[in-house]
Each structure stands twice: as structure tokens, then as C-alpha cells.
Amino acid sequence: MKVKTLEKVDYFDLEQQIMECWNVCSDIQTLIDNDEVLNDADRRLNLLIGLKEMYELKFDRMFNTFEEVVHDWHTQKKEWPNPTERKKDGDFPF
To answer: Which of 4, 29, 43, 72 lies at a 20 to 30 A Cα distance from 84?
Structure first.
């Protein structure tokens, strides 16, 4: 599933989205710790299906951001000066 974004993204967005995806671990732990949810099979299944769909969206968004960041990096890399022609430190955009 391709998630569309209207705004320009950068590696800071990617880092934030990676951190958001780590929340899946604490979200699962929340379900494990809730006895009411564990004792109700229908509710547990509905919550797990919702959690699965939510994280599919988050991982898709993160991967799309990753692809855009990599594309931008390679595009910018073509514009970098040749290392043998570098005049001083700091000529590179990183």
C-alpha cells in the first residue's frame, strides 16, 4: 500500500518515523497487560487487527520516506564536487 505525502520529507522525518514504529512493542505490551482484553477473544482480535493495520500504514509511510530520502541523497551526491578538486574542508554538503 503506497501512502502519499504532500510535504517534502528529509532524514529527520525518517528518524522520527522509525522511532514511531518502535511503539509497536509498547502497544503489544499494553494489550498483554490488560486482563480484560486478554479474557475477551473478540475484543482482543479486533484490537490486534486494528494494531496490525495501523502499523502497516506507519511502516509504509516510513518506507516511502526512506525511498525519498535515498533518492534525494543520490540526486544531491551527483552535484558534489570531485574529492580530488576539493579546496578546503567543508566543501561537501554533509
So the answer is: 72
Q: What are φ and ψ of residue 9, in 5° steps?
A: -115, 160
- Report how far residue 38's alpha carbon sits from residue 45's, in angstroms, rounded to the nearest whole number: 10
pTM of the model: 0.66
Residue 2 grid coordinates:
503506497
* CB neighbourhood size of 72 (10 A): 14
Cell numbers 502519499 correspond to 4
Residue 29, φ and ψ in degrees, nearest 5: -60, -35
Reference 66, options 92, 77, 93, 74; nearest CA is 74
pLDDT of 33-74, one tens digit each?
999 988 999 999 999 999 999 999 999 999 999 999 888 887
* Between 51 and 86, residue with greater pLDDT: 51
Contact in structure between 66 and 8 (CB atoms under 8 Å) = no
